[in-house]
Amino acid sequence: MKHYNIAINWNSLDDCYFTNIVKKLCKKKKLSFLWIHDGNSKETLRGLYNQKIHIDILIDTDATYNDPEDIYSRICYAVKDSGDMVINDPDNTQAAINKAVMYYKLVSLGIPTPYTTVIRKWQPKKVLLTEKQKVHLGIPFIIKPAQGYGQKGIIRQATGTPYCIAKARSFDPKDDFLLQRRVKPVFFDNKKCWFRVFRVFDRILPCWWDDKTNRYEHMSEYEFKKYKFDPFFDITVKIAQVTGMVWFSTEIAIIKSRKGIFYYMPIDYVNDQCDMTPVSQTPSGIPNHVAHFTARTLIENSLKILNNKKVNAERYMLHFR
Q1: d(Cα 226, Cα 255) in Å, to the nearest integer?
Q2: Averaged over 173-182, what is the pLDDT?
């Protein structure tokens, strides 16, 4: 049997900056490493089923759980069913990436969210919005699939007509859809208050993020304290606790009500597979040091787990640039 301490699902041998960091860290820590990609995924799955391959901890970046034929999802479950660890756990992930499920969980936690109406997959193609829904949604509003990813299937200029809603739902008739009010973020010192906050084990990394250009800027401790961004911490910790996920990001915007109250709103709730493509490879990538820090945190905590050491589950710390 081939035994690997750490494995990572990364389907391509190209654009593999993050995977190479993980690989180098494993070598430094003397951990056996397996890179699972399109060239060896079928062989790896067979090996797991036939008990010829054993993986202690699998870092997943590629599973598509709403596709029953997806091989990376099967690999994740094969590792979990062997009694080993997947980052993130497949069952926790399936619940967390369903935006319809997460919307109601966030509401139950008292976290402000944009006004949302959920359209179930079994509802008729022709959906008529009530006057109340129209008022709360505004026009235009956003329509998105509950289990969508990579910004696929999103309508950003929805008008609310039955035809418009039906056309949006045709992207995936087997999925539920969310009709979500558009939000207008405030600006602090000419910086748009739209953010992507990463969580990896006990570390939280807040980043400024532009939803139009997809540009990132890792936040400084000075900025965090100056603008009193403490709700980032609270929201991220609550999402971690309710989902059971150890590695994810959440998209947060700050809006101001007519009464002058600031609300911190998770927009896309949870992204289970954080895009670790660095800015050195694409302008929309994350800062390179965020990729390095994430990889180090994943491996350091994995090493603790392998050595049966306690991993902090309740203590969270912010990490700044």
Answers
A1: 18
A2: 94
